[in-house]
Design brief:
By secondary structure, the protein is mainly alpha-helical. The protein has helices spanning 32-41, 45-105, 109-147, 151-154. It has four helices and no strands.
């Protein structure tokens, strides 16, 4: 029940007006006028903010450099492992063919033929299926590596001061709800 101010002399009507102002900016640092304001409140605050920003930027670049170095090292190790696998597969195939020939020469033609044929067909199958697997595996790895964010970005949630709206990168996979243009 609302009291009528005219009926009750002890009540008076009060009107309040609220004004809300919001300021946003993109980037890690506030606008220069805010830095001046921080400096007025606490001497050296603007310099400390700049020092913190520079330290974070150096740290982020170092983390990205380490991430890229690790990716290059991983790819190099994967290439070396594939090459060793190819050498071992070739050696096993040659041993199977030679063993089949030796067994056939010793008078067991059917057994030698089966051993030699198994070695050849194993080499062919490994080569054919290995090429198919390598081409599809490379594609899936490149897609997953494009979607990975550097550790500094994926672990730190954006704040209202550092979050910036940007156009999605052409290499990024679509988010949920978005449709791919492919």
């Amino acid at each position: 029940m609302i009291a009528d101010p005219a009926a009750n002399p002890g009540y008076e009507e009060v009107t309040a007006e609220a004004i809300e102002t919001s300021l946003t900016w993109s980037g890690p640092l506030p606008p220069p006028e805010y830095l001046r304001g921080y400096e007025l409140v606490s001497r050296g605050a603007a310099g400390r903010l700049l020092t913190i920003f520079e330290g974070e930027a150096l740290h982020r670049r170092e983390m990205e450099r380490q991430h890229l170095t690790a990716l290059v090292d991983d790819r190099s190790r994967e290439r070396d492992e594939r090459r060793r696998g190819q050498y071992c597969g070739f050696a096993i195939g040659v041993v199977a063919i030679v063993a089949g020939a030796v067994v056939a020469i010793m008078g067991h033609g059917i057994s030698g033929t089966l051993i030699g044929t198994g070695g050849v067909s194993g080499l062919v199958a490994a080569f054919v299926y290995g090429q198919r697997g390598a081409s599809s595996g490379t594609r899936s790895q490149s897609v997953s590596s494009n979607s990975e964010a550097p550790a500094s970005e994926s672990q730190v949630p954006p704040t209202s001061q550092t979050a910036a709206l940007s156009e999605p990168d052409a290499n990024d996979p679509p988010s949920q709800g978005e449709e791919s243009e492919e």
